[in-house]
Amino acid sequence: MPESEQCFAAFDLFFRSALQLPEYRARRGLRYPVGFLAGLYFCAIAARRDSQMSASIWMNAHWDLLAKLWEKSSGSRLSEAARRRGPSQATLSRYLQGCSPDEFAWYRTRAERIVFRQRWQAFLKLRRETGRKAMGAKVNDRRKLSRQPNKPIPQYALDGKARAGCVSEATGRHEIDLTLYSPDTKQVLAQRTLADKEGEPSAAVSIILAEARSLPKGIFTGDAGILSPRVVSALAKNNHDFIFGIKGNAGNVFDVIKSHPWDRMPFVSETFFKGHGRGEMRGLKKISVSSFETPELFAKYKGVAVVFQVTRVIEKLSSGEMGKEVSYYIGGGEAAALTSREAQGYIRDHWGQESFHWVKYVVLGQDASHQKRNNGSRILGILRTSVAEVGMRLFGSTKRFVDHFSADPRKMLEK
User: Fold this and answer.
1) What is the pTM of this model?
2) Is 356 exposed, middle or buried (0-12, 13-18, 19+ CB in 10 A)?
3) Alpha-carbon gap, residue 287 to 304, rounded angstroms
4) In 150-286, which residue ranges form alpha helices assigned H by DSSP?
5) How many CB atoms within 10 Å of residue 348?
6) Count of CB atoms within 10 A of residue 327's CB?
7) Model pLDDT for residues 142-181, shown as the tens digit of each residue
């Protein structure tokens, strides 16, 4: 288990970012600041208490501890009225319906982007030390080497996921959370909520133009639903590169790629994986855009330079059933310069975002949540994202984190 100071620092970071949330209520008679309510609900979700009634009961049972944590983080004392008892179920209900999820998401992801830039600078420093090691210099902490990504530049995964049971008032379909996720540090760096999946490319452009410009140069990955000429142009404008899946919705470009004689080409990289009840072989083939007979068709994707074919042969270990999947990806100049193993790493690691969503939906119970109203569902989704990030940061596992915290929150909240 991490040291108590590490645990306190992780909670303190969340409370400090919550301090910046703008107050949406009148000041008169205000008992609990909106940032404090966000921090309280964050702790309640970490303790597996996400319904309003159970969260209120848990907060009041640990009220002295939570009030002290807020006062340490904010540097200010709560009012006497707030000191006497914790928020009621009605107070939490008003918070979930009154707080702006867009503002909350922006303040939370801004804090994560700051942490991400600090981590990337630390990684660059470590990589310089590792490079000097070959010339006789000493690496300060060799234990850090195994935790560093084997990638020349960062990866940013764009993907949308529906919130089960939360129906958009505009379209009547499930709302979509489009997130910009770092598979290397397991952080959500930007987020947008959409009425349905049809708006994913436009929201991706919004994220790239607004938030991605503050991130170190990297490679954006995404499935065919994200790919569009506008997305690729926005990335080029902000000095980022890409590897995106491509399917039939790309029109003639996909037809040209699929009809290429891939069978005559050898795999440039093969990897094997065994786990989760299956065995999998992944083979990668790579070809430059200039090698196609009609490279001008690719011109709508600014800077495109390479096409990948990925073949997955999957065996279910329990039944021996075999399956085969073939998918195609296009990439820019930085992607073309990757080694075959590096390219396969970027493509494979994109699906780490699916694991992150699984933690939110299953381990933290978002699928089973009773809160289906749009505003409240979005707020709780942001809080679950934060709990998952803190769990991975402290324990390397969100489940272990919530198990320890729900058993004895005092060990983590006391410095």
Assistant:
1) 0.87
2) buried
3) 12
4) 200-210, 229-237, 252-259
5) 17
6) 15
7) 444 334 456 889 999 999 887 766 666 666 677 788 899 9
pLDDT at 68: 85
8 A C-beta contact, residue 46 and residue 405:
yes
Reading the block at residue 271, the tokens are: 């990897």
- Phi/psi at 330 (nearest 5 deg)? -120, 150
DSSP one-letter string for 174-208:
EEEEEEEEETTTTEEEEEEEESSGGGHHHHHHHHH
Closest CA relative to residue 306, chosen from 351, 348, 338: 338
Edge-to-edge order in the sheet of strand 278-288: 187-194, 174-182, 155-167, 219-222, 241-246, 322-331, 306-316, 278-288, 269-275
Which value, in Å, is the radius of gyration of the alpha carbons in the chain?
23
Q: What is the DSSP letter of 48?
A: T
Q: How far is CA 363 from the centre of its chain?
A: 16
Dihedral-angle region of residue 186 (phi above 0 means left; psi in -120 to 50 means alpha; beta otherwise)? left
Q: Angle at the Cα of 157 (from 12 to 146), degrees rounded to 5? A: 65
**CB neighbour list of residue 122: distance below 8 Å, 6 or more residues apart:** none
Cβ distance 188 to 179 under 8 Å? yes
pLDDT in tens, 48-85: 988 889 999 999 999 988 888 888 877 878 877 778 88
Which one of 68-72, 210-214, 364-368 scores highest in mean pLDDT?
210-214
Q: Which of 209, 233, 367, 383 is nearest to 299 (CA)?
A: 233
State whether residue 261 is helix, strand or coil: coil
Amino acid at 188: V
Pick from 315, 373, 314, 340: nearest CA to 163:
373
CA dihedral 231, 235, 240, 244 (to 10 degrees): 10
Residue found by looking up tokens 């296009």 in the block: 330
Name the one residue in this structure whose structure tokens are 């699984």.
Answer: 358
136's tokens: 């006789």
Q: Which residue has 């991130």 as its token pair?
A: 215
